[in-house]
Every structure is written in C-alpha cells, then in structure tokens.
Write a structure and sequence with these properties.
globular, 4-stranded antiparallel β-sheet, 23% strand, single chain, alpha+beta, 191 residues, 7 helices
C-alpha cells in the first residue's frame, strides 16, 4: 500500500461479504470494532446509516452488518462491509489535491470526518510547499485550536515531514485521503 510505504500507520481493516466474515474479523482485530459500508457509490456513509460504532460482541456485529446491508444493498449490489478496531481519541484531518489547469497541483487541508462537509473549514495552497507554507496551511483553518490542544487536550504532532509525505502520496496516486484513517475523500465534493 502506498500510504504504508510512506510511513503512515494504518488502522487494520478487513473487507467482509457476510455477517459470519465480519464476526470472524472482529474477533481477529479485537473488540470494540467499527463497521463501515465499503462502496464508491456511497459517499457520505454516516448520513445513510453506513457506519456503526463501538460494537462490543458478535451479536452486535451481526446485527450491525445486517442493518447496513439491508439499508444500502440497493445502492450498490457489490457492497461489502469494512471492519476496523474502534480507535479512541486523536483528531481526524483531510489532505486532498487537485490539478488546476493554470496553477498545477493544489493541496487542500482541513479537519476531517463530518467537519470538512459541515464546517467547510479548509485551507488551500499551491504545491510544492515549504515547511513554512505547510505549517501556515494547517494554522489557517478555524479548527486549528483543536489541533493545537484546546481546553487542556494534548496537541497533535504537526510533523511537517508527514505533510510532505502526504503531498508525495497525492502526487503518486492522485487520490485525496483522510490522514491516518482508512477512508477516501471524493474530490467532486470538495469544500
């Protein structure tokens, strides 16, 4: 995987086609787990009931699997379900790239998850970036205090080499992604 090659720690994940496979994956990965609809046809999975959090046993996994599949199979006949360990804490961010015909590669950074869609709080820079430009891009978002450690929270590690690695991954793959989470950002839904 490209992200692993650039040193990004990825949450272990298994794609499952049946409730039995999901239960087996949950046992192997360890409880609690998260189930997510794995489909390019479904962009905002949490909005349509395609994400189930904090599942703590086989019965909960089986029920969540069946609920997601019954709700979303009509949107994607090849729907599979991704099983991952539930990760607590941390901050989710997104880094994306597009190629502007005039400026070339343009990077976008913001808080990830629902925040990128709801708050539309992103910062944009032309690539390549210097460390100073990368830090400025991060500090420019309104949500930066959440990354810096607001209200007694521990700040995140703003290692600029990680931003540079993200930019290299984006150039190599052309696929924007949520940093440190195994989810993809759909560039047609840029903020």
């Amino acid at each position: 995987d490209v992200l692993t090659a650039y040193g990004f720690p990825l949450v272990p994940s298994r794609l499952c086609a049946s409730a039995a496979e999901a239960i087996e994956a949950a046992h192997a990965l360890g409880y609690p787990v998260v189930l997510k609809a794995a489909s390019d046809a479904i962009v905002h999975k949490s909005d349509v009931g395609g994400v189930k959090l904090d599942l703590r046993n086989a019965d909960e996994v089986a029920g969540a699997f069946c609920e997601i599949v019954s709700r979303l199979r009509s949107k994607d006949k090849t729907l599979k379900i991704q099983v991952q360990p539930m990760i607590a804490g941390g901050r989710e961010t997104i880094l994306g790239m597009t190629r502007d015909p005039q400026f070339g590669p343009v990077l976008m950074f913001g808080l990830g998850g629902i925040f990128v869609e709801v708050m539309k709080d992103v910062s944009v820079r032309i690539h390549p970036l210097t460390d100073v430009n990368a830090r400025s891009m991060i500090e420019r978002i309104k949500g930066y205090p959440l990354l810096a450690g607001a209200r007694g929270e521990k700040p995140v590690d703003l290692d600029m080499s990680r931003v540079d690695a993200c930019a290299k991954v984006l150039q190599a793959t052309g696929t924007p992604f949520f940093v440190a989470f195994n989810r993809r950002f759909d560039p047609s839904h840029r903020a």
